[in-house]
Fold:
Amino acid sequence: MTEEKKKMRMEDIIIQSIQSAPEVDPPADLYRRVMDGLEPKRPSLWTRVRLWLIRPQVLTVRPLTAIPALTLAVALIALAVVKNQPVVEDSAMRLATVRFILHDTDMHARNVSVIGSFNNWRADRSVMWYSSEAKAWILEAQLPPGDHEYLFLVNGEQFVPDPNAPMTSDDGFGNRNSIVFVNGEHEQAL
Structure:
């Protein structure tokens, strides 16, 4: 007899023994013994936090502890509001006029916009106009002091760095952005 036949014969014997065994009720305390042998499962941290948040909580407020806490909260809110107020009069006086020029002698472009950090990279905010005398697209914009990255958006789909920009910066995607420096009175060239 081969090994496989012996194995099949043994399985048949086991199956017949199980089928012919008399039915016996389990002991009365089997469930309790099994459950006592299991350790309780500890819920995850997320489950415990979620349960803590959805269960009603008792909040006891004493005037002597509520007044300092309320005073601190009002002071923090006031500080945040004051700190986030823009200084309008100072920045309005320091805006500088910057002229963007993209030469297009063959008039290949139908429309050109300047997109950059100063207009949240939105083309509709800085649309250039074509000067037939200069054979170039031109835009004069008021910019606050600082360094600003920008590109020309040609025909709504092609990004072109300024060929006359003295500096460029890597945009993190393998392309180059042009940089203009503004000191508050005029643009700076290096």
